[in-house]
Amino acid sequence: MASSSSRSTAPSTPVSLSTLSRSKAKVAARHVQSRALNPGFDRKPAKVNQIDHTKLAIIVKRPAPNSPTQLYYPYDVDWSDQRCITHLNSWRGIKLRYWYGRTPAKRPIPTRILFCNEEKAWLFREAGKENWEAGNKSFIWAKLVKRFNQEFEGNLLKGCDVRRPARTSPQLKALYERLLRNERDALGTENEENYDDDDVAESGSESELEEGEIREYPQTGRLVRPWEL
Known about the structure:
The chain is mainly alpha-helical and about 230 residues long. About 45% of the residues lie in helices and about 5% in strands. A two-stranded antiparallel ribbon has the order 1-2. Strands 3-4 form a two-stranded antiparallel ribbon. Helix 3 packs across helix 5.
């Protein structure tokens, strides 16, 4: 007589990935269809001592020619009993998830935190010290981001009401490009105001700087090389 440990069991039939995909697609389609045909459906739970008979039924409109699906809670409800209300809400949750899917998670709306003047000045100064022409730009930005966050993340700065968040490389790049653009615009405006035909006649050219040459900005006195970010 064969022992119970030697008994063979029928191997379970594996479910293919394609079958799972079709099943998930069918469920998703049901949720989308139900939400479209039943806008504003009630997901709010029943509450103790608040009699609301609309919580005892769930009516789901279906596409023609199907008639609406009508679901009714099969038990009597004592509206003053917490256990009864909990059971009712559990029943409603199961039915609503089947037809409409889970409640979408409420994600906080991201708030844009602007840069403070101290952060701008630090980035403008420290990025200007880097050798952009000879160095690896991605490595330089990664190093600047690390140093920037070590300097400011979590701090409260003068003139800023919010603690400084961690910044990313794209954020610092965009800020630095904007700072350089503002600096160049200011330089162009000053040159137009101070433009003199006698200066051009003496130099023989409107610009004495060759392409790629170091330029000194009169507003800050710092050197800026014409690199591409």
